[in-house]
Amino acid sequence: MKNTTSQTVEIHKAKTSKIDQVDFENLTFGKIFTDHMFVCDYVDGKWQTPKITPYGPMSFDPSARVFHYGQAVFEGMKAYKDDNGDVFLFRPDENYNRINKSAERLAMPEFPEHYFFEGLTTLLQLDNDWIKPGYGNSLYIRPFVIATQPSVSASEANEYRFIIICSPAQAYYSGDVSVLIEEKYSRSANGGFGYAKAAGNYAGQFYPTKLAKEKGYQQIIWTDANTHEYLEEAGTMNVFFRIGDKLITAPVSDRILDGVTRKSLIALAEKQGYDIEVRPIKVEEIIAAAKNGNLNEIFGAGTAAVISPVKAFGYKGEHYELPKQDNPYAAHFKKALMDIQYNKAEDTFGWRYKV
Ligand code: COI
Asked: Signal peptide location in the record (predicted)?
């Protein structure tokens, strides 16, 4: 039943809300979803009228190409509520551009900008009550596109579905993480699609991460596929290393995801006069710094993970603990970033987007 229509989005409201059943103080990341979702189909060479419908299961033909060839891309975003109840997104244009860049690499059609922004803002307005104010509370937003065309022919599909679902979130990691530097497996290679937020990039890491977990590490840090000598990114976030007072992170490439949190942190660090280098970083440089007591911090940066400090790492059977810092850079940049996201600090970069 059609209830209302925004300028371009057909709205079918849920009859009841699940919100009263949710314990917002004890959320597990990505388990609970809001009352509505955004759906738009690509058929006959064009995106059809987008809809917002009650959140719920969908049915697909078992031969839909996403199930066989993994033609699927996604994004991770968050909405934040300030103390006045105003809701903000953080640099959503970056996510919009990146999902289309990912889609292009997987031979999927570009999604129209006004559908993306109108769909997203209409959805957030409908599910506004699910966005809780307070530092660390947010609504995790997952836009994704899948190939729905029924047929197991191994070529790009001509039918797709673009969907946005939202999940109330707190921290992704409950504490500091420990990571294993990967020596054997690779996330991506030159000319591959490591830069794309493609589902397959994540599926491919589950097995090496499972092996790392058996050794007591929560995450892996990928090294380059050719030599395994250079540090690239972690499974769920980009990575920064602090040697002495210098901050170093790997440059993006066709193997490394162009993270929004990563590039925001680099911009903040540059503006605040931190010594930051974006350059290839060798594993041996980190090991040498750890051995001579100069490796002060490692931390991850990502939308879900925000800024996640690393407490220890493993490499070639050796275990390295990172020293405790009085004023860690990780905490400094996390606060600087969140102050902007939660509308507590002046937004000199123009990153906040009011919903
Ligand atoms: C995000 O940070 O939004 C991501 O997409 C990482 C995901 C694996 C949770």
From this structure: none
pTM of the model: 0.94
Q: What is the ipTM of this complex?
A: 0.96
Protein fold of 3-169? D-amino Acid Aminotransferase; Chain A, domain 1 (3.30.470)
Residue with CA at minimum distance from ligand 1 atom 7:
236
Angle among Cα 224, 178, 74 to the nearest 5 degrees reads 60
Mean pLDDT of the chain: 95
Ligand 1 atom 8: residue of nearest CA: 236
Cα 204 to averaged position of ligand 1 atoms, centre (Å): 15
Q: How far apart are the first and last CA of the chain?
A: 26
Q: Which residues line ligand 1 (CB under 6 A)?
A: 76, 202, 236, 302-305
What's the 288 CA to ligand 1 centre distance in angstroms?
A: 31
The CA dihedral of 50, 56, 57, 58, to the nearest 10 degrees, is: -10
Q: Does residue 251 carry a pLDDT above 90?
A: yes
The domain segmentation of the chain, as residue ranges, is 3-169, 177-341
Nearest alpha carbon, ligand 1 atom 9: 304
For β-strands 36-43 and 160-169, DSSP reports them as: antiparallel
CATH architecture type of domain 177-341: Alpha-Beta Barrel (3.20)
d(CA 102, CA 197): 6
Q: What is the pLDDT of residues 263-283, one digit of tens each?
A: 999 999 999 999 999 999 999
Atom of ligand 1 lying closest to residue 303 CA: 2
Where does 64-126 have alpha helices with state H? 65-69, 92-105, 113-126
Q: Count each helix (H run) and each strand (E run) in the chain, helices first.
A: 7, 20
pLDDT one-digit tens code per residue, 210-248:
999 999 999 999 999 999 999 999 988 999 999 999 999
Pocket test for ligand 1, best of 89, 165, 303 (most atoms within 8 A of CB): 303
